[in-house]
Specification:
mainly alpha, two-stranded antiparallel ribbon, 470 residues, globular
């Protein structure tokens, strides 16, 4: 039987934490979602506004989380903050949503994105092929490769936090440099005529149809279009808070978590804005909006590098998604560990192996993510959870106000930047986003909300079981 340890090993430094923030944020989204955003807003200026709004929200949330991470430098991050500010029911609903959909479906989606772009280089992994036919279920080589990558990264992370750290830092630095290189080459080969055309009516908000026609929005429908456009950019900028989950393994968590959140989100936000500026300099709005399978970066790279463009982007996305999934897998299991310590998950998940990591939690997460890979429904779920993700961010940031009142004497090594204005602005923006989605894109809201609320009876069933076994 594998021996166990009872404590996490604090071995991660500021550089490691920053690479986890940036690496978890950059997956495949920045290479794809600008197509849907362009279809919704129909202009270069509004494309940039959507990314600026997302960047502002992400940075504001990250700076706000710095206060909470300094107050509660424990494994579990956001789960712990919600429990301290509210009650165990709210924190369990977050943990429940996190395990059932948010983290595991994201791991599946990122894994399949890795496989899809591997198929550009190795066609044997094409998602349209059938590797195994169970009759009721057909499994593609892309799904099998995605599961294989998830299993491999889970195994590596079960060998200790240093193993995961090496992969995270190496792959994140590689993708940051390669994305920066793509931007530089794109700006070098910028087409002045395309740039001038794209920015001619840059501040007109309008839908862009497949035949190139530009429609019009009523005032409220315009707000709905912005909210719908932000679903993709928010997903592409999500997972920045994963570093809070591994607080127990950071050497100086009271300082470095908040600092890494700020550094990581700023770096990624700047790169995202520059990438979209580059897109508008090499592609027409129509080519961006209706790129094949929404793969804007592939279309842009073909313009810049010719026939090598597809290979270059395929390699970039393989590196990006591999590193992104490493960060997601590494951090996610720490939330389940904290839940298990509260008696709200399998008891074994709350133990550490001889390498001081929650190995059982890692493998449970691996199993669930693999099931999402096989289901093929993770893409739909990711659209649905943007609403839930922002809702929990709002609750967590509102927790700063609650804890300031509830525990005024508590030691706060770092205080939320711009308090109370910036946290309040985030809450108002997040609320507007959620309300607009409920009105104009109900299919993006109710399924995720229902999954979250299903956690309420589950919580009380667990509590009843616990009392019965006392």
């Amino acid at each position: 039987m594998e021996s166990e340890t009872t404590r996490f090993k604090p071995t991660l430094k500021l550089m490691d934490a920053t690479m986890l923030v940036a690496g978890s944020m950059i997956g495949s989204g920045i290479f794809i979602v600008s197509a849907d955003i362009t279809r919704n807003v129909g202009s270069s200026g509004w494309l940039m506004i959507v990314w600026l709004l997302t960047g502002f929200m992400t940075l504001t949330a990250a700076l706000s989380y710095g206060e909470l991470s300094a107050m509660f430098p424990k494994a579990g991050g956001q789960y712990i903050y919600l429990k301290e500010a509210y009650n165990p029911v709210i924190s369990f609903l977050y943990g429940w949503s996190f395990f059932t959909v948010i983290q595991t479906a994201t791991i599946a989606a990122v894994g399949v994105a890795f496989a899809k772009f591997t198929a550009y280089l190795l066609p044997v992994f094409n998602e349209d092929l059938i590797a195994i036919d169970f009759g009721f279920l057909q499994v593609s080589p892309a799904q099998l490769l995605a599961i294989g990558v998830i299993v491999l990264l889970t195994y590596i992370n079960s060998r200790g936090v240093n193993s995961g750290k090496i992969i995270q830092t190496t792959f994140t630095l590689t993708k940051l440099l390669s994305l920066f290189g793509l931007i530089v080459f794109g700006l070098i080969f910028l087409d002045k005529d395309i740039w001038a055309t794209n920015w001619k009516n840059a501040w007109v908000l309008q839908p862009l149809s497949v035949d190139g026609d530009l429609g019009t929005y009523t005032t409220m429908a315009a707000f709905g279009a912005i909210a719908a456009a932000m679903v993709g950019s928010i997903f592409s900028s999500d997972s920045w808070h994963n570093v809070t989950f591994i607080a127990g393994e950071i050497q100086n968590p009271k300082r470095d978590i908040g600092l890494s959140l700020a550094l990581g989100t700023v770096i990624v936000t700047i790169l995202y804005l520059l990438t979209n500026m580059m897109y508008t300099g090499v592609l027409s709005l129509h080519d961006m909006a209706y790129a094949d399978k929404d793969r804007v970066a592939v279309t842009a790279s073909k313009v810049i590098f010719g026939s090598w463009g597809t290979v270059i982007i395929a390699l970039m996305i393989m590196v990006s998604t591999f590193g992104c999934n490493n960060g997601l897998i590494m951090a996610g299991a720490r939330v389940y560990y904290s839940m298990a310590k509260d008696g709200l998950f399998f008891k074994k998940v709350g133990t550490l192996n001889k390498n001081a990591v929650p190995a059982f939690g890692l493998w449970i997460q691996c199993l669930f993510a693999s099931l999402w890979c096989l289901s093929g429904r993770y893409g739909d779920l990711l659209d649905m959870i943007s609403f839930v993700v922002v809702m929990f961010y709002m609750l967590t940031i509102a927790g700063i106000f609650i804890l300031r009142k509830k525990r005024p004497e508590a030691h706060r090594p770092y205080k939320a930047f711009g308090y109370p204005f910036l946290p309040l602005i985030y809450i108002l923006m997040g609320m507007s986003f959620c309300i607009l989605l409920m009105i104009y894109k109900p299919n993006y809201t109710w399924p995720g909300l229902i999954i979250t609320l299903l956690g309420i009876p589950v919580y009380y069933l667990i509590e009843k079981f616990k009392r019965k076994n006392l």
